[in-house]
Amino acid sequence: MTTTPNPGDTRGIDATAIASNRNAGSTENTAAPVQIHSIVGGLVGNMIEWYDFLAYSIFSIYFAKSFFPSDKPTVQLMNTAAIAAVGYLARPLGSWLVGLYADRRGRKSALTWSVMTMCVGSLMIAVTPSYATIGVFAPIMLILARLLQGLSMGGEYGTSATYLSEIAPAHRRGFYLGFLQVSVVAGQLVALALMLVMQNVLFTSEQIEHWGWRIPFVIGGALALFALYMRRNVTETEAFKHNAQQAGPSVTQEMLKHWRQIVLAIGITIGGTVCFYTYTVYMQKYLVNSVGLSKETSTLISAGALLLYMPLQPLFGLASDIFGRRPVLICFGLCCTLFSVPLFTALSHTNDPLIAFLLSFTGLVMLSGFTSVHMLVKTELFPVRIRALAVGLPYALSTAILGGTTEFVALRFKASGHERYFYWYVTAWAAVSLLVYLRMPETHSRKITA
Q: Of the chain's two ends, which shows fewer C-beta atoms within 10 Å, N or C?
């Protein structure tokens, strides 16, 4: 049951703004037909953009030599990794630009431009000549391409979440938004699967290093064109069309008016961001460096756990439709606060691949309480006029500052001989967000069209 905070509520957000929009589902058309083709268009585009963005990191071990002349492979990879970081640093700017465009010109238009930008970035990487051919212009072109990818990805996730929340039926928003995270993991797995096929079936290492590394980016560009076609045929949301007809304050004024919700959105995100990069991105390296498993076994464990993790997202989202968003988030925060240290401690004391798989998957189950609903909760915090920008920007900033540094922090603790401190680092950030979840209002019944 949803309650309206009183004027003296100390939960730290604009209670009046939330309460004024929290009309029960009876005032919103929950029987509206599901725009399946529009939902699919949004999800497929998001999956392809994540594939394009992550393909850079996955295949960088092969194309580093083409762009950076050096007899030291480590130096080449460091230079390539530095350019990869450009993509992450560009994400907050992309979130601002694309989110602002989405709030002014429409979700459909913004998503179309987003996937078009990713297409250009991927094709630029695919066709850029090597350093041996054009000299210093090769890494410059690579930087520009990665910048375009970062701008695109920065605006994609928040705008996709906004679009899907507004197009989905009100009583099943959690279920449909759960598929957004499915598309993220699917993009990662598709890029990884392509690499495995190229390595073990199609080419030799020399062929991939010489020219084969360009194939994933050609495929990415072609897939982005397909996503562009699909998104040109999706419908604009009724929420945006209704809001576009009404006058109101500027986006900047509206953002300042909702600063408490923006701070709340950051608080919702920080713990989950650290946990996400810990249990997905860093876990594979942890299984190799700390548990002592082989790279091949660790890759199989991570891939298998991610495959089982994907269908959990709409299920957790459905649970939020039934029980509310707060209980699902609290479940995540409580589990990661209480069990992160025991889980990693148990992992560090096993050499059994099956036990390592079960523990890794357990971490992903806990994480699902966050990844399935956090973007939806943020869309329900903000009015239509600033929703895409206000949802995407806090997420992009949190990811750039905390998510992107999680692996570095973990490795620094390990190098110093105090790896156990990292377990408590993850726990501490999960606990911070848990406090936010315990104090925040329920957003489940908010009218998304407001």
A: N
Q: How confident is the model at residue 231 (pLDDT cuts 50, 70, 90)?
A: confident
Residue-level length of the chain: 450
User: Around Cβ 414, how many Cβ atoms within 10 Å?
Assistant: 17
Is residue 92 a contact partner of residue 157, using CB atoms and an 8 Å limit? Answer: no
Look at the alpha carbons of 13, 333, 389, 38 in this order and tell me if their dihedral is positive or negative. Answer: negative
Please say if the pLDDT value at position 321 is more than 90: yes
pLDDT(9) > 50: no
Token pair belonging to 228: 């562009």
Say what the pTM is: 0.80
Q: What is the pLDDT of residues 56-73, one digit of tens each?
A: 877 877 777 788 776 666
Going by C-alpha positions, the residue among 140, 158, 207, 189 that lies closest to residue 394 is 158
What is the spatial distance between Cα 252 and Cα 266, in angstroms, rounded to a whole number? 18
- The torsion region of residue 242 among left (phi > 0), alpha (psi -120 to 50) and beta comes to alpha
What are 91-117's pLDDT values in tens digits? 888 889 988 888 888 888 888 888 889
Cα first-last separation, the chain: 21
Place of tokens 């601002």: 96
What is the percent of the chain with per-residue pLDDT over 70, rounded to a whole number? 86
Separation CA 65–CA 226 (nearest Å): 31
Distance (Å, rounded) from C-alpha 322 to C-alpha 417?
46
| 189 within 8 A of 6, measured Cβ to Cβ | no
Structure tokens, 179: 């598929």
CA distance 89 to 245: 35
Q: Give CA separation, 108 vs 113, 246, 251, 317, 387, in Å.
A: 9, 19, 19, 24, 14
Contact present, 282 and 442 (Cβ < 8 Å): no
Rounded to an integer, what distance in angstroms lies between the CA atom of residue 164 and that of residue 179?
Answer: 10
- Chain centre to alpha carbon of residue 84: 16
Tokens 């309650």 identify what position? 3
Q: Looking up tokens 């315990």, which residue turns up?
A: 438
Domains of the chain and CATH, by start:
34-246 (1.20.1250.20), 248-450 (1.20.1250.20)
Angle at 419 between CA 415 and CA 425, to 5 degrees: 120
Give, in order, the Cα–Cα distances in Å from 345 to each of 101, 269, 287, 356: 46, 25, 12, 11
CA–chain centroid gap for 143, Å, is 22
What are the structure tokens assigned to 145, written together? 């391409």
Sign of CA dihedral 381, 42, 401, 283: positive
